[in-house]
Amino acid sequence: MIFATVGTQLPFPRFVGALDAIAGRRGLRIVAQTCGDTDARPHLDRHEHLDPVTFDRFVREASVIVGHAGIGSILSAGRAGKPIILYPRRASLGEHRNEHQLATVAALCDRPGIHIAHSDEELEALLTTPDLMPFQLEQSANRTALVDRLRAFIAA
């Protein structure tokens, strides 16, 4: 199962639509937290919002996590040792107030287990790649540095 999340603040129809199309073409089981997306998505197991216990259960059960470039999704994947695919929102497309998610993925693109998709085609290629490397938060100064970098991007 693939677990997709858009966060809790804004819908992300471009991303959710791409996931629905990919799930339909490829026969993938995708559970998606969709936060306000109202379009028909027949190929997704949709949840508007998830309580923390259910969210954590989906993270544990997923083979891969895919989401916007939000710190919560990144940290959840790292704590669970799951691969994460980031599909950043773009302010230029009206999806956020600034381009901080593009800055976040640029800063994290070299981290093992963090996979970046800037297009629907890249997203589909990653979702159909077997055995993506998992992302693991390191229990060291590197972990602290990563968390600090993520927090700095969110605060910007």
UniProtKB/TrEMBL annotation:
Ranges of residues in domain Glycosyl transferase family 28 C-terminal: 52-128
Cited InterPro entries: Glyco_trans_28_C
TM segment ranges: none
Recorded superkingdom: Bacteria
SUPFAM superfamilies, per database record: UDP-Glycosyltransferase/glycogen phosphorylase
GO molecular function, one term: hexosyltransferase activity
This protein's name: Glycosyl transferase family 28 C-terminal domain-containing protein
Biological source species: Sphingomonas sanguinis
Top-level taxonomy: Bacteria, Pseudomonadati, Pseudomonadota, Alphaproteobacteria, Sphingomonadales
